[in-house]
Each structure stands twice: as C-alpha cells, then as structure tokens.
Amino acid sequence: MFAKDTMEYTAQDYKKGQPRWCPGCGDHFFLGSLYKAMAEVGVAPHNMAVISGIGCSSRLPYYVSPYAMQTIHGRAASVATGAKVVNPDLTIWQISGDGDGLAIGGNHFIHSMRRNIDLNMVLLNNRIYGLTKGQYSPTSPRGTVTKSSPYGTVEDPFRPAELCFGARGRFFARSVATDNAETVSILKAAYHHKGASVCEILQNCVIFNDGCYNEVYTKEARKNNAIYVRHGEKLVFGPNNEFGLVQKGFGLRVVTIGQGGYTLDDVLVHDAHCQDDTLQLKLAMMDNSQGFPVALGVIRDVEAPTYNDAVNAQVEEVAGKKKYHNFMELLETNDIWEVK
Q1: Phi then psi for 157, rounded to 5 degrees?
Q2: How many other CB atoms are found less than 10 A from the CB of residue 282?
Q3: What is the pLDDT of residues 33-54, one digit of tens each?
Q4: Fewest beta carbons less than 10 Å away: which of 57, 170, 189, 339?
Q5: Overall pTM surpassing 0.70 (yes/no)
Q6: Would you put residue 220 in left (φ > 0), alpha (ψ -120 to 50) or beta?
C-alpha cells in the first residue's frame, strides 16, 4: 500500500454527489463512517478505489471521490482482485450487500478469503434484498416472512463469520451501522491488516426489514446485548461491565462477575491474533437468542502471505530468468530475416 500521505485530509475530501437511499437507511450511516475512516488513514483519494456489485449498498461508489466502479451482480470481488493484483499499491474498498456478496457472489467471496487477497471487503448486511423490493436473502433467518417467502423461509441462513472462517479468512470484524466510532475503528483496522479483511456491518432496511437489528441498533440496546471485543482485554460487558465470558467445557458461558464464585480472573481475555480460530469463531457466532451478547469489534486479525504479493514476486522471479524483458526483445529471440 502507499505510505501515508503527508497531507492531512478531512471527510469532505472523499465526498461526492448526493446519496439516493431511503431516509434512515443504514447505508447513510455507514457512508459517513467510511468518509471519516478514509480521512484518518491518510491515503490520498487518487490512491484508493471503491468497487461494488449491484444492490442498494452497491450504489456507494457514486458517492465517493476516489476511483470508483460499480460492476455487475456478485462480481465485485473478482474485479477488486484484478485491480489489486495489477495495482498492488492501490487501497481497495470492496462494498457488497448480503445478497450481492453471499448469493451470486458467494463463490468469489470464499476464494478471496482463501487466497488472502489484500482487499478491504465490507459486507453491508440487512438480511434482505432491498433493491429488488424485499425478497429474502442468504442471511435471512429461518422463518422470515418476505415477498418471496410469504409463509416464512424454510432454510437456514449463511452466517458471514462462519463462512469467512471456513474459507480460512484471517480478518473478521463487525459493527453496527449506527455506531460511528466503532465502525470507523474496524475500518481502520481492516486497512492496516495486510490481506483479505471482512467487516460485517449490521444495518436495518427501513422499508423491507426494519428492526431486524433492534437489539443492538441503539447505544442503550448495545449496553445489554453486545460486547465490544478488544485484543488483550477481558471479555466483559453490560452497563457496568458486570457480566463476563468464561470457558465452559468446549464452549462459552455468560456469568455475573462476583456471583456464583466467579471473579474477574475467571473471565477470558480476547486474543485476536491467535492462529487457532476456535475461540474467535465462538465469539463471532454468539447470538442474543441463545443468551449471549453480539460480538462487535475486531474478532480475528492474523497475518499470512497475500496472493497479490505472491503473484507479483513470482512474475519478477520468472522475468529475471528470461532473456527478454519487453516485446521487442521477445521478437528478437527467434530467427530474424532482414528483407531488402
């Protein structure tokens, strides 16, 4: 990636156009956080590219000043991969919705993770197809009533963290669209991570799936129903940090600190850099319906070789062994006749 620019930028430097989303849509909240994160990482707009597929959230490239491209449905990761491989110093932000990114684009999602391409992949998850007017998506919970499932869905959803981890993903973070500070924080962490990063943004679709994240959508709700995970810190939560996560067999358990014989010493410490993703996955999969808080923050952040670095290193190595280094030299490696 480019070294941090010596100039100082503000969010205004990354803005363009007038967003055309429904009033109250989570995309508005996220876009504001993205502007701020871009400014704080300090990369010039002309050294960034924002690439999306198709969907409500995929209109975002029209509203940023860096290089931007809206591609075709489900193919944002493919285009972003090509852009990164041929422009290794370019900072890439890939914007996808849960339908665009995990349905038709699901195969590209998992292979981007497996290859560990240095992309900042943002998954704006509202558990619905908004642009096409309210069909259920790959992340809609079983039983969800929509226009395409009037009696409720009869299938289990993808859980983005599980898919990311299963594809050998090295970075996974989560935030709520209305939580500007935390969203900016995880976007900056994703930028600084070398490799494929996934930031899942939980957001309501105010028209077709309003209230789907009410348990964590407000600051007051998050005090009781969410836990902010910080590397090296105790896994505590609650209005007064009175609850903690402890190990119970091969799983986790919520306890009240100071009760039942549990003290702060019993509470687990978050390790986002652990190569073994067992605990990280358990944190990412926690759900309010099971009596657990929703984990927010950087859940996994592990270093590994990147695809784009490996490809470019291989090209340089092979080129160094060749007798030719440009097209004219290639032509001259064969027999040459001069016609007079």
Answers
A1: -85, 165
A2: 18
A3: 999 999 999 999 999 999 999 9
A4: 339
A5: yes
A6: alpha
